[in-house]
Each structure stands twice: as structure tokens, then as C-alpha cells.
Write a structure and sequence with these properties.
The termini are far apart. The longest helix is centred in the middle third of the chain and has 19 residues. The radius of gyration is 20 Å and the shape is globular. The chain has one domain: NAD(P)-binding Rossmann-like Domain (Rossmann fold), CATH 3.40.50. It has a 7-stranded parallel beta sheet, with helices on both faces. It contains 12 helices and 17 strands. The protein is 38% helix and 17% strand. Bound molecules: nicotinamide-adenine-dinucleotide. The site of nicotinamide-adenine-dinucleotide (NAD) has 25 residues, from helix 2 and strand 8.
Length: 375
């Protein structure tokens, strides 16, 4: 592939482009999403449960839902001193959601449920922990069962690009995965099978029991207040950490998993949160991509982080490390058509913020075990 990162697919002129967190290039288009939500029942002032709230995406979602005026119950199995963000305005609960009884307690009295709880991590974790990844099926299944009896109106499930068929991702020049590419089923072993099964559980609970389900297929999400160490981190955070470690230690080597030519797209957390809330508020019933279409190779990702750090490193390629599929990106035709919007925060911009946050973490001596941001 060319050495230049591919630009995000450009949509029609009507597309809402987020230019900064909370602001949009056309107020009119943002209003469209809000109006749609309003017509389907106001999205303001709900009682909302966020499951997996101690994790990366969950912590950001809780912050945004509180800012939007919702009453939020935040649930995670981790002790609260280990949550990436713990917001005092939320009702924070420590519960293991693999148990049906705990799910009932977690969502009792809520209007809407966001399920972001899962045992997951980057490629290194999901390739070596397939059984643990599949056990997350208990969380989504028990949450859906509890939702039936607790009277919740709406249920969001965080699915993944790992549901897509492996045979569609064998070359680096992936044109972008369309929603229909999940079938015939050939997902990532373990983690991807659980996601695909849980998507279908959502669909059948909607069809059979009337629970309004929404499913987004996230493509690699990154940003501050997430995992950058310890084995569960994903490529952007791992590369920021490795480049920073090289810069701080003076050892100018970097290990790269695979040959570095494998391709991916990465979505900045603010796009993820905006898209998640918008999909939840919409009438989109089928699983939909929520990802960036700006595809880069891992080598290009390293180039960008090196540029931010102002350093050039000697690359050592570890060809026996877990690599995942050869090429993956998000085809955003459906989300543009349905929402007049697609994730558009440039990788360069998002990486600058992520790198700065990890730099502060490392400099302050905080470890993954104490990354709590009480607000
Ligand atoms: P994360 O690991 O940071 O957060 C997940 C949280 O779920 C953790 O805090 C964990 O403690 C919690 N959890 C796990 N098992 C639990 C249980 N039994 N009961 C209660 N809580 C439990 O992950 P994330 O990056 O924030 O991902 C959130 C969701 O989005 C997950 O479902 C993940 O599979 C999905 N997803 C994420 C990405 C990504 O790039 N981050 C990509 C695709 C899909």
C-alpha cells in the first residue's frame, strides 16, 4: 500500500463533521439527530445504567450522560479505586454482571441500559484468552433476561469489528467492511464469536420479547483514560507507551508485532461516545458500524507517534506475536445514510491527545493499577 495514510471517506455535503468535542460544523445537522431522538421519546432526563463503567469507554460515556442531564447508575466488577473514571454524580456500584441476580440489582428501575461490560483487550489478550472472552456471553445474556423483568425500555450492546468474517480481511488493502460482511459467519475465534452470538441474542430478545435493542460494531477505539499497559492495551496506546519508554530511557528500539504492514482504522473516543449516544437514540435496529474509515498500516501508526514524540526508532519486527487479521477498516455507507454523520476526528489529532495523556501518566509514576480520575 502507499506510504500515505488513506483519508477518511468523505460523505455528502450534508454530513455533520465534529470539529471539536461537543461542537459540530453544522448546527442544523446536529439538530437532526436530536429531533429524531425527541420524536422517539426524549433522550433527556432518563435513568440510565452503564455496565462496564469502570472501563475505558464506559468511563467516558458516564461523564457524557451526566453532562447531558441523565441520572446515571455506573456498574463494574472492578473495585472502584481501579476505575479509569469514577464520577461522583453517578450512583457507582461494584457488581459482577455474570450473575443474573446482580444484573437484576444493577438495572432495577432504569429506563435505558448500555452494556459495555466484557472481558476484553487488544489482540494479545483476545488470542490467548478465548474462553474468558466467551464467558462475557453470560453478562449480555443475563442483562437481557433482567431487562425483560425490570421494565427497561432500551438496551445498547457494544459489539465489535471482530464479528466480521476472517476471509474478508486477508489483504492489507481492505476496502472497508460493510455490515453484511459478518455473514457467512467466520468471526475472530473466541471474542468475535461471543460478540456475534450476543448481537443475535439482542435481535431475538427484541423480536420475541419487545426489548428495544441497539447494536454498534466498534472499530478500535482509542484515547485518554484507557488501557495502555498490562497486556490488554490496543495498538495506539501500546505504541504511544513504547515510543515514550524509548524516549525516556534512551533505548531507541521498538518492538512491532508482525511485519507492521497489517492495516487498521482507529476511532477517537469522542466520536465513539457521540456515535453511541446517537445510535441509542435512533431507530436503527440492525447492527451498525461505528468506526473510522481512515485506514493506516501499523508502520504508519508508528510513524505518526514518532512524529509527535520527535524521535526516530529502530524497529524490530516480532513475527511470532499475535497479529490478528491482515487488513480491516470500516465502511461507513450505512451510518452516513442513517445518521448524516460518521466518525471523523483525524488519527493525528487523536494520537496527539492520547500520547499527551500517557506521557502524563508515565511521568507522574501512576501505574495502570491506580488510574482513577474521580470527578
Ligand atoms: P474495558 O476493558 O476498558 O472495559 C470493560 C469493563 O467491563 C472493564 O472495566 C471490566 O472490569 C468490566 N467487566 C468485565 N467483566 C465484567 C463483569 N462480569 N461484570 C461487570 N463488569 C465487568 O473495555 P472498553 O475498551 O471500554 O470496551 C467496552 C466495550 O466495547 C466492550 O464490550 C468491548 O468488547 C467493546 N469494544 C471495544 C473496542 C475498543 O477498541 N476499545 C472495540 C470493539 C468493541
Amino acid at each position: 500500500m502507499s506510504s500515505k495514510p488513506r483519508k477518511a471517506a468523505t460523505a455528502s455535503k450534508k454530513v455533520t463533521v465534529r470539529v471539536a468535542p461537543g461542537t459540530y460544523s453544522t448546527g442544523e445537522e446536529k439538530k437532526k439527530v436530536s429531533d429524531k431522538s425527541a420524536s422517539e421519546g426524549s433522550t433527556n432526563g432518563k435513568v440510565v445504567a452503564v455496565c462496564g463503567a469502570g472501563g475505558f469507554i464506559g468511563g467516558h460515556l458516564v461523564r457524557k450522560l451526566i453532562a447531558d442531564g441523565h441520572t446515571v447508575r455506573a456498574i463494574d466488577k472492578k473495585p472502584q479505586n481501579l476505575w479509569y473514571q469514577r464520577h461522583s454524580a453517578a450512583e457507582n456500584k461494584t457488581l459482577d454482571l455474570e450473575s443474573l441476580d446482580n444484573c437484576k440489582e444493577a438495572i432495577n428501575g432504569v429506563d435505558w441500559i448500555y452494556n459495555l461490560a466484557a472481558d476484553m483487550g487488544g489482540m494479545g489478550f483476545i488470542e490467548l484468552n478465548k474462553g474468558l472472552c466467551m464467558l462475557s456471553v453470560l453478562i449480555n445474556t443475563h442483562l437481557l433476561m433482567a431487562a425483560r423483568t425490570c421494565g427497561a425500555q432500551r438496551f445498547f450492546y457494544a459489539s465489535s469489528a471482530c464479528v466480521y468474517a476472517g476471509f474478508k480481511q486477508r489483504t492489507t488493502d481492505n476496502p472497508g467492511l460493510k455490515e453484511e460482511d459478518a455473514y457467512p459467519a467466520d468471526p475472530e475465534d473466541g471474542y468475535g464469536w461471543e460478540k456475534l452470538f450476543s448481537e443475535r441474542m439482542c435481535r431475538h430478545f427484541r423480536e420475541d420479547f419487545g426489548i428495544e435493542t441497539r447494536v454498534a460494531r466498534y472499530h478500535n477505539v482509542y484515547g485518554p483514560n484507557g488501557t495502555y499497559d498490562g497486556g490488554r492495551e490496543k495498538a495506539p496506546a501500546a505504541i504511544c507507551r513504547k515510543v515514550l519508554a524509548a524516549k525516556m530511557s534512551g533505548n531507541k528500539n521498538i518492538e512491532i508485532w508482525g511485519d507492521g504492514q497489517q492495516t487498521r482504522s482507529f476511532m477517537y473516543i469522542d466520536d465513539c461516545i457521540y456515535g453511541t449516544e446517537s445510535i441509542m437514540a435512533s431507530d436503527i435496529l440492525e447492527p451498525i458500524n461505528l468506526g473510522s474509515a481512515e485506514m493506516v498500516s501499523i508502520n504508519q501508526l508508528v510513524d505518526m507517534v514518532e512524529g509527535i514524540a520527535g524521535i526516530k526508532l529502530k524497529r524490530k519486527y516480532n513475527l511470532s506475536a499475535p497479529k490478528g487479521v491482515r487488513g480491516r477498516s470500516s465502511d461507513n455507507t450505512m451510518i452516513r445514510a442513517k445518521m448524516n454523520w460518521e466518525p471523523s476526528i483525524a488519527l493525528q489529532k487523536g494520537l496527539e491527545k492520547t500520547y499527551a495523556w500517557i506521557f502524563d501518566e508515565l511521568k507522574s509514576g501512576r501505574s495502570e493499577k491506580s488510574v482513577v480520575n474521580a470527578a
